[in-house]
């Protein structure tokens, strides 16, 4: 019997634990759930929402969910919706909470701006529906008074005015003129009134595109310039939309010659957009994606951004040979001359093959020569070189490939302002380049590596 008190204590603790587990904890959870539900503005989760309408002073706009995350406008017209704008509106409703419930009847709505709501939203989730009327801002910033139709109560909420006020049909219409992923684009065609440029993606099955110009000449493309072009196409958005009707017909008669037509070719289909500037003095620019569809007002700056000539888009490195393909580089300046040879992946000087060369310095120098780009084009065709200092150049570099053939040449001439005149094997004509390379040409002494005891022979 001496263990009886212990057994009784264990029984009491077990009973207390059972009470807490079966009674108190569920009651607490129900209370917390009820409190959370009372704070929620909508009675259903975001994933169940299938329809939405918003009414402002401009009239009603109705949306329909076609697929997860993809909405369309079904009234006052049928067209694609801006999915991000619609999702942002729904997200604001779902995450908005009730901070206070006011004891106000339907006849006392004016003090809260709910007698004439600025915006009314009806949200549909299957068979369920809720209507929210938006009134005045609350006493704190980013709060709004709303009237919830299901219980006819005036609520002070955490809804932010910027998410629900001054919304129009234009806000929710699709404004992107083209929809694509860069990795999916197989070809880009830029058509101008007198010429065109065709660029192919040579890495269609790889995560990062690799672009090459195939027309009007076959040459490497400037990867950064083409990527910049693609990013600008992704950001090509309408500032205004002119739907079919008298205004569209009138403007359409002025669109005679496009500045550029851009066509994207993908496995899923082709997309194209024409850009016009019928009156450059007015600053207005117009885009058209289909012959009979809407016209789009766009930022006129985009006309310049998307009108690229061949020089802009092609690889502007002048030497004509990639750094990794150089087997020998001849260097000649007004003060020195030497030849670097790549022997089994290691640089040596032609006239001092047994001396150890600083591989880091040689690699950096050769890569600078190979990657020097043209900044400006002076002459498209061959021209007299003497006026540019290119007959007696400041520096001349000749590159030999692994096959033993001379396939790269870069010549630097006189300085003009902040740039140097230059010619190269990759591009025909006279160009200007940055002058930094002239100061970065190492001497033989600078190329020769030093050991602890000074220069030593290779063994």
Q: Could you provide a short overview of the structure?
A:
With 459 residues, the protein is an alpha+beta fold.
3D structure, described in words:
The chain is of the alpha+beta class and about 450 residues long. The chain folds into 3 domains: about 45-170, Dna Ligase, domain 1, CATH 3.30.1490; about 180-315, no CATH class; about 325-445, no CATH class. Helix content is about 20%, strand content about 35%. It is built from 10 helices and 26 strands. The strands form 3 sheets. Strands 4-3-2-1-6-7-8-9-5 form a 9-stranded antiparallel beta sheet, with no helix packed on it. Strands 13-12-11-10-15-16-17-18-14 form a 9-stranded antiparallel beta sheet. The longest helix has about 35 residues, at about 5-40. It is extended, with a radius of gyration of 35 Å. The model is unreliable at about 25-35 and about 450-459 (pLDDT under 50).
Q: How would you summarize the topology of this molecule?
A:
Layout: H1 4-39, E1 51-56, E2 59-67, E3 70-75, E4 79-80, H2 83-95, E5 98-102, E6 119-125, E7 128-137, E8 144-148, E9 153-157, H3 169-172, E10 185-191, E11 196-201, E12 211-215, E13 219-220, H4 223-234, E14 240-242, H5 246-252, E15 260-266, E16 269-276, E17 285-288, E18 295-298, H6 301-306, H7 310-313, E19 326-333, E20 337-343, E21 346-349, H8 359-371, E22 376-379, E23 395-401, E24 406-416, E25 419-424, E26 430-433, H9 436-439, H10 444-447
Antiparallel strand pairs: 1-2, 1-6, 2-3, 3-4, 5-9, 6-7, 7-8, 8-9, 10-11, 10-15, 11-12, 12-13, 14-18, 15-16, 16-17, 17-18, 19-20, 19-23, 20-21, 22-26, 23-24, 24-25, 25-26
């Amino acid at each position: 019997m001496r263990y009886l008190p212990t057994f009784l204590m264990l029984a009491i603790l077990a009973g207390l634990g059972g009470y807490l587990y079966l009674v108190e904890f569920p009651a607490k959870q129900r209370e917390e759930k009820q409190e959370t539900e009372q704070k929620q503005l909508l009675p259903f989760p975001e994933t169940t929402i299938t329809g939405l309408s918003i009414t402002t002073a401009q009239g009603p706009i109705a949306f329909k969910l076609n697929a997860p995350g993809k909405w369309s406008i079904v009234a006052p017209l049928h067209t694609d919706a801006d999915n991000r704008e619609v999702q942002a509106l729904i997200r604001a409703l779902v995450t908005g909470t009730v901070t206070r419930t006011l004891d106000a009847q339907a006849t006392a709505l004016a003090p809260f701006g709910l007698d004439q709501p600025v915006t009314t939203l009806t949200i549909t989730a299957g068979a369920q529906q809720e209507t929210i009327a938006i009134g005045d801002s609350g006493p704190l910033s980013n709060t709004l008074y709303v009237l919830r139709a299901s219980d006819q109560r005036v609520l002070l909420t955490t809804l932010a005015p910027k998410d629900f006020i001054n919304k129009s049909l234009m806000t929710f219409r699709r404004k992107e003129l083209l929809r694509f992923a860069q990795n999916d684009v197989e070809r880009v065609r830029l058509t101008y009134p007198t010429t065109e440029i065709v660029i192919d993606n040579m890495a269609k099955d790889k995560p990062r595109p690799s672009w090459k110009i195939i027309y009007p000449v076959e040459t490497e493309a400037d990867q950064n310039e083409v990527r910049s072009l693609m990013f600008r196409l992704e950001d090509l958005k309408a500032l205004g939309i002119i739907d079919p009707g008298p205004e569209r017909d009138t403007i359409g008669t002025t669109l005679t010659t496009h500045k550029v037509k851009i066509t994207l070719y993908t496995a899923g289909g082709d997309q194209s957009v024409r850009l016009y500037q019928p009156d450059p003095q007015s600053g207005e620019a117009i885009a058209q994606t289909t012959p009979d569809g809407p016209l789009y007002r766009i930022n006129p700056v985009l006309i310049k951004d998307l009108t690229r000539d061949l020089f802009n888009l092609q690889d502007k490195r002048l030497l004509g040979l990639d750094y990794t393909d150089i087997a020998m580089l001849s260097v000649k300046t007004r003060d020195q001359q030497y030849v670097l040879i790549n022997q089994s992946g290691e640089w040596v000087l032609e006239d001092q093959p047994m001396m150890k060369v600083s591989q880091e310095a040689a690699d950096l120098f050769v890569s600078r020569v190979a990657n020097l780009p043209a900044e400006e084009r002076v002459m498209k065709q061959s021209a007299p070189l003497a006026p540019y200092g290119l007959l007696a150049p400041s520096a001349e570099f000749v590159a030999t490939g692994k096959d033993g053939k001379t396939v790269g040449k870069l010549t630097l001439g006189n300085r003009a302002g902040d740039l140097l005149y230059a010619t190269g094997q990759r591009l025909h004509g006279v160009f200007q380049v940055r002058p930094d390379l002239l100061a970065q040409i190492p001497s033989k002494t600078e190329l020769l590596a030093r050991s602890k005891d000074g220069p030593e022979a290779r063994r």
